[in-house]
Amino acid sequence: MDNLGIVFLSELVGTAMLVLLGCGVVANVALAKNKGLNGGFLMVNFGWGLAVFAGVIVAYASGAHLNPAVTLGLVANGATEFGNPAFGTGVPVDVVSVLTYIGAQLLGAFLGAVVAWLAYKQHFDAEPEPANKLGVFSTGPAIRSYGWNLVTEIIGTFVLIFLILVSGGTPSQVGPLFVALVVVGIGNSLGGPTGYAINPARDLGPRIAHAILPIPGKGSSDWGYSWVPIVGPIIGSVLATLLFQAIGAQDLIDAIKAAAS
Questions:
Q1: CA 88, CA 102: separation in Å to the nearest integer?
Q2: Is 146 exposed, middle or buried (0-12, 13-18, 19+ CB in 10 A)?
């Protein structure tokens, strides 16, 4: 298999693992008759953090983007190659490789959500509230105000991408535990208003799954809101990259690496 095929499978399986565990913790907390029912937002945040940790470990061969905002942020930062040099899986950054990463992330997120639904099938059937069912799959605002919801998603994703960039590049290069803790921190500090998608694939893939799956009494998939967790993270990623470049952070990182060697 060529490198493009390897990174596609790596991103697909890693993102599926991320979404399976992330949607799974929400299902455990939100759906009727679960042992984790009413476990609270902190449990959800730690669950998503551990989901990111697992996803990064699984997708190490591709650099573990797992998020179109990460992929586009690296492009905006001038990356010339994706992949993981330690695995010899480098691919040149071009339209084909960018679409490969994002396509794998979207498909992986969809599949992860489907498997989460299978794991909690009886609880979805027993849950009377459509909003709780949708909340397992996708994010939604605590107070619906598209402009301010967009601002929240921009800020949350800005923090994620900026910290990844200043810490050395892709999540796999930074370290899975670091990225997991950043996600927990973002959730605890900035996640309340929107549920912190900070990842277009994480929201869109499961939202499509919600629309397609035969879930009784599921209600609307809230497509009117769906653009916010897509546009917000992309803007946040670009802004984080612009600031990273404006302060010359890459030069400082390179100087530190040179001194250490």
A1: 21
A2: middle
If one counts the domains in the chain, the total is 1
- Beta partners for 92? 81
Rounded Cα gap, residues 60 and 9, in angstroms: 11
Three-state DSSP state, 91: strand
What's the half-sphere exposure (Cβ side, CA atoms, 13 Å) at 85?
5
Dump strand ranges (E) for 64-216. Answer: 81-82, 91-92
For residue 24, the tally of other CB atoms under 10 A from its CB is: 21
- Residues 106 and 204: beta-carbon distance below 8 Å: yes
- The interaxial angle of helices 95-119 and 200-212, nearest 10 deg, is 50
The reported pTM is 0.93
| Residue 190 lies in domain | 3-260
Q: Domain containing 131 — which CATH number?
A: 1.20.1080.10
**Per-residue pLDDT tens for 173-207?**
788 999 999 999 999 999 999 999 999 999 999 99
